[in-house]
Design brief:
InterPro entries: Metallo-B-lactamas, RibonucZ/Hydroxyglut_hydro, Sec-metab_biosynth-thioest, WH-like_DNA-bd_sf. Residues 42-253 form the Metallo-beta-lactamase domain. This is Metallo-beta-lactamase domain-containing protein. The protein has helices at 4-16, 66-78, 95-98, 101-104, 115-123, 128-139, 144-148, 230-241, 259-283, 289-295, 310-329, and strands spanning 21-25, 28-34, 42-48, 56-59, 86-89, 111-114, 168-171, 176-179, 182-188, 197-201, 206-210, 248-251, 333-338, 341-346. It has a single domain (4-271), classed as Metallo-beta-lactamase, Chain A (4-Layer Sandwich), CATH 3.60.15. Helix content is 35%, strand content 20%. The strands form three sheets. The chain has a seven-stranded mixed beta sheet. β2 (28-34) and β3 (42-48) form a beta hairpin. By secondary structure, the chain is α/β, with parallel strands linked by helices. It binds zinc ion.
Amino acid sequence: MLKENKREEITKNIEKREALVEQVADGIWRIGVELPQNPLRELNSYLIKGKENGRDLLIDTGFRREECREALFAGLRALGSSPERLDILLTHLHSDHTGLAREAAGTDSHIYISGTDLAILKDGFTPERPLRLAEQFRAGGFPEDEMKKTQALNPAVRYKLDQVDDRFVPIEAGWKYTVGDYTLEMISVPGHTPGNAMFWAKKQGIMFTGDHILFDISPNITSWLESEDSLGDYLDSLRLARKYPVRLALPGHRKTGDYAARIEALLAHHERRLAETEALLAEHPGMTAYETAGKMRWKIRAASWEEFPPSQKWFAVGECMAHLDYLRLRGRIRREMDGEVWRWFTVTAKYC
Ligand SMILES: [Zn+2]
């Protein structure tokens, strides 16, 4: 909980701030939560209003930083909600979704998140996890000096939740919650994070897609300590998502779009990316993940791989490792340990 003087100061800022809210369906509003200096631009926080005297449900919250706090609370105020009325639902553990959950929740609120992601959130507060993560990236050929410059390894990453308390409730696939005219069901879609979830309002045909399906950017799929095959998980989860007759998709960032068409486009995108990775290894056998990532194409404004900011390199290498693991687990490429790093090779067909 916030100290009283801090709370007062925030209230003043919120009063000054213009709320960015828009109604997206009957009883559902989007609160645009600005993400400063972030290519995602905004987090879409959704408020579903409950019946009179009932509780409201808030889906995802924004980073734990001032700009997000002001935007979220201004939105809640404009919509006539407040922490005491709220339960909170989190699509996955990333800080831009979970950062403000504790502040937006009242004393009696519940904060629901998949059990898998909750366990990783808790593990993230231990000093061991960052060390294991560093080991994984070191084996991927990530240079030590650049590793020091990334935020990813800092356990006190600035904008994430400061702790997990007993208002957090782990949930699993099939879990249901009713608010207003909506009954939401949790659909488990691992990949973007190991416990990633979507929430399905069957009667209305509305899917809260979180970061599983985004429309004008592709969700980041990285290698996880908790999953051997996160890209395989993600592609399976896209195929699962296909089965829902979605009329309105409400994503975690940016605008909505054609749900079914977007799933096909994302599947095709990763097929191309996998073929590209395999072709690069055929051309340059023995590269590390770091070197392979340096030759892949990225949507970033940097003249060369050398000029990528270390934090962006970190995302790129993580994504590259997920693609390499996918190909390795399906026998399309192999790796060899060379000192402390893995080097990657294509598997040449023996009988051709
Ligand atoms: Zn995310």
